[in-house]
Write a structure and sequence with these properties.
The protein has 18 helices and 33 strands. With about 750 residues, it is of the alpha/beta class.
Length: about 750
């Protein structure tokens, strides 16, 4: 294929070649990728492993050889300031801005290329998709597609010519959220953005405020959880087009629902990952990541790597109007540089929320060096130590900053999974933290599972499911804040003092924990109905930020299993790895042994045990059945009423630090008292306190109650506000509660009491 400079227009492309375009500057939104600019497309890629880069492009997605045209990319100029001596090399410029430069960057402008064209980068080792591809319609091994992000018309912005642009959608605040974790491929039978959009109105009616989408970065195969993504800027073609994703978010905003996206910045998947073809410095062997090569955030040539991931965080917020990110397994994101990459990602995402969604120059990217002298001093000090930090960190251990815009700012919600329970992630930047809003609280889940099922294997073994664990978890967040953790044989956690209760995301189910049971059973299949109703009340009325896993609200009977479609060789490794992971549960290991013996003797095995993760049947079994909203109407009403109580009650709707205390009433019973805020003149207004009594054991008679938290305010009495034993929820009714002579707390139940004036 001949390498040539593109012609001026589509009409004369078959005519004789024209002169190379004259030097000019191009204002880019992101440091790498293919971007539409006036008159064509500007390409930029970091490929220091190759001495030359050629872009191959075609209007055919199959990339037939006779349809391919080519053009060279040129090494970036060492300066960002255009000069008359730049010959035919295009400059990348934004007024008063900086983008990582240096050896290894290649760029070029190709005129007259429209959106929808397909392309690859040809390196010394072959032709590969763009690392910053916005869409891979044929999957990670196919060509990238040029996307116009400004083509979609959003309804969450309102603008008038020459006037500020007020937002009709303000984003998500840190407080007041109810999350709903969703896997698009199994949320509906169709497994598409379009089908999921049709269900959004019901989630809004239920009381959900924000949807947390499991990862969508494109990955190989026909199905998967998404945590093995390899095209971090490209929403997977399995669920639809990028604009269908935008339509989903746009529709959610019109219903008052936010959308946050689960992103994986600790590793990339094993199949379709071509980053190492462009540079060996994307990954490092200095750290051991559980799922693949660790990302190089602090070693040699890590500057462009940090820039790449910071741009990705900004990209999802700006171009898709997402309301936040959930950072997966942050304990596996390794960085010893002066400014941790998670802090960089946090700043990049928040600053992107200020940018306009159009591709106008006012939204163009600007990358700044760290402003704090403390960071520079730390860098200088560390360079003199035995541990050397690469010079490239000086230019990109920083945040992405954007030019001032006429748009009103919007709030975003940033949450992290962190198994080590490092609270620095959720502390503010001025406190030396990383600036995230919330952390998943595994401690709450593990205690709940032990209390509900009685099983305490593997990572549940350090929990007892006692009343005191729940009281402590809701008062302080994490249970382990630096104590010895015998399962891991090390100290775990860090102090949470000073964090808001709603900075802890609490849950009874999530994708990992449901799948980690033997058959992917939901919690309703593992405990009694009464216990589940009581624990659901605790979850949805607690001061933390509650999260439901798809289908939990109607007691879905469908399992959620681990599934991943891979080529045969990789599939065997994945299946074996999954069995090894589950073997930490002694009961699962015993079943595996029994099944192996039964299989050897020709016995018929139950079809739903130890499912093959690479089987399409395993994937299909996980799809929700929305007819169960009616079939399991009692469970659905339970969730709906509790979320309404949480939203509308003046006490439950306003959790605050110090606003709750609790006491143990029995071996499986406890009380939580929620204090009303009151006013400056009347700190404790009558009628503003609430009691939540939870009993996971048999009925509890308190003939005397020597517990001050049970005492009503002066001149008031306790009256029943809500009970999990209401027949509407499948209960058996609630006896008269709170009589002067005794308390009777029903077995396996939760009740809510409110103070009302004495008669």
């Amino acid at each position: 294929m001949e390498v040539h400079t593109p012609k001026k227009s589509a009409a004369n492309r078959s005519a004789e070649p024209l002169s190379p375009p004259q030097p000019r500057s191009y204002s880019r939104k992101y440091p790498v990728g293919a971007e539409l600019v006036p008159g064509g497309v500007h390409f930029r890629v970091w490929a220091p492993k190759s001495e030359s880069v050629i872009v191959e492009y075609s209007d055919k997605p199959d990339f037939f050889p006779n349809s391919i045209r080519t053009a060279p990319l040129h090494p970036d100029s060492p300066s960002l300031i255009p000069s008359s001596s730049s010959n035919d090399r295009s400059e990348i410029r934004n007024p008063k801005s900086e983008i990582c430069t240096g050896p290894g960057y290649f760029s070029a402008f190709i005129p007259d290329l429209p959106a929808g064209m397909f392309y690859k980068f040809r390196l010394a080792t072959g032709s590969f998709p763009d690392p910053a591809s916005r869409f891979q319609p044929r999957g990670p091994h196919g060509p990238s597609q040029i996307v116009d992000p400004a083509a979609f018309k959003w309804d969450d912005l309102h603008s008038e010519r020459g006037q500020p642009c007020p937002r009709t959608w303000k984003g998500l605040a840190r407080t007041g959220q109810v999350l709903y974790e969703m896997h698009i491929g199994t949320f509906t039978p169709e497994g598409t953005w379009i089908a999921a959009t049709e269900q959004l109105s019901e989630l809004a009616r239920l009381g959900i405020t924000a949807i947390e989408i499991m990862p969508v970065a494109d990955f190989c195969g026909r199905f998967g959880w998404g945590y093995d993504g390899v095209n971090l800027f490209a929403p997977t073609r399995l669920y639809g087009t990028p604009d269908q994703f935008r339509h989903f978010i746009n529709a959610a905003h019109k219903l008052g629902l936010g959308v946050i996206l689960d992103v994986v910045y600790n590793h990339l998947g094993p199949d379709g990952n071509y980053l190492s073809q462009f540079s060996d410095d994307y990954f490092t062997h200095r750290y051991r990541c559980e799922w693949g090569d660790a990302i190089n955030f602090d070693g040699p040539n890590s500057g462009p790597v940090r820039e790449f991931f910071a741009a990705n965080a900004a990209y999802w917020i700006e171009e898709f109007h997402l309301d936040g990110l959930r950072l997966d397994a942050t304990q596996q994101i390794f960085d010893s540089s002066p400014e941790h990459i998670i802090r960089v990602l946090s700043c990049a995402a928040r600053q992107a929320a200020i940018a306009p969604a159009s591709s106008s120059p006012s939204g163009r990217q600007k990358i700044q060096k760290p402003r704090s002298s403390r960071g520079n001093e730390a860098l200088k000090s560390q360079r003199t130590s035995e541990k050397r930090i690469d010079q490239s960190l000086v230019t990109s251990a920083a945040t992405i900053s954007l030019k001032p815009s006429t748009l009103e700012p919007r709030s975003i919600f940033l949450v992290a999974e962190n198994e080590a329970q490092q609270t620095i992630l959720a502390r503010t930047l001025d406190q030396g933290g990383y600036g995230l809003d919330a952390l998943w609280n595994d401690d709450f889940h593990h205690s709940a599972m032990v209390a509900l099922t009685g099983r305490a294997e593997a990572y549940y073994s350090d929990y007892r499911g006692t009343p005191q664990e729940f009281i402590s978890a809701l008062k302080w967040g994490f249970l382990y804040q630096g104590q010895w953790y015998s399962w891991q044989k090390k100290y775990r956690g860090s102090p949470s003092f000073g964090l808001h209760p709603q900075q802890f995301v609490i849950f009874l189910q999530n994708h990992d924990q449901v799948a980690n049971s033997l058959r992917g059973f939901r919690i309703r299949h593992l405990t009694s109905p009464g216990r589940l109703r009581a624990m659901t009340a605790l979850l949805l009325l607690a001061p933390g930020t509650p999260m439901l896993f798809q289908g939990q609200e109607f007691g879905a009977s469908t399992p959620f299993l681990f599934f991943a479609d891979h080529n045969p060789d990789l599939a065997k490794l994945v299946a074996r790895g999954r069995k090894e992971f589950l073997s930490q549960f002694s009961s699962v290991a015993a079943v595996e042994k029994e099944f192996s013996q039964a299989k050897a003797t020709g016995q018929v095995l139950p079809p739903d045990c130890l499912s093959d993760p690479c089987s399409e049947e395993t994937f299909s079994r996980c799809k929700l059945d929305f007819s169960e909203r009616a079939k399991h109407g009692a469970i659905y009403r339970l969730h709906k009423d509790l979320l309404q109580l949480r939203r509308n009650d003046p006490v439950f709707s306003s959790p605050r630090p110090g606003g709750l205390d609790g006491a143990v009433l029995g071996p499986e019973a406890f009380v939580l008292r929620f204090f009303g805020a009151g006013t400056a003149s009347s700190p404790r207004q009558n009628g503003q306190d609430r009691l939540l009594l939870v009993n996971l054991g048999p009925a509890l008679h308190l003939s005397s109650a020597p517990e001050p938290l049970l005492a009503p305010l002066v001149g008031t009495k306790w009256t029943l506000l809500w009970s999990s034993e209401h027949p509407f929820y499948g209960g058996s009714g609630t006896p008269t509660f709170g009589a002067a002579e005794h308390y009777l707390l029903p077995g396996q139940a939760a009740v809510v009491l409110a103070t009302t004036p004495m008669d």
